[in-house]
Amino acid sequence: MDIHPFRAALAGVVLILTLAASPDPAAHLAAIEARLNKVRSPFRTAERFGIEEIIDPRDTRKLLCEFANLAAPLRKPGPRSFGYRP
Fold first, then answer.
1. Domain for residue 56, yes or no?
2. What is the DSSP string of 4-68?
3. What is the mean pLDDT of residues 24-43?
4. The whole model's pTM is what?
């Protein structure tokens, strides 16, 4: 999911204005960072959607190649036994 550049800029402006209006900008920024750090964990998202395992990005290629090698013998040449769904 990509964020639109205008929305990113707007969020930055809102943050700057919020910090400027705060009596203690450093503490306010620390509170915002703490709140965002709580929701950015991939483990939290995986748990929410019932994902049992998270693949380390460094292992992605190895696991995809392993899957392709396991699936390759199951492929058969010729017409498909199923068609497109209406």
1. yes
2. PHHHHHHHHHHHHHHHHHSSSHHHHHHHHHHHHHHH--HHHHHHHTT------GGGHHHHHHHHH
3. 85
4. 0.45
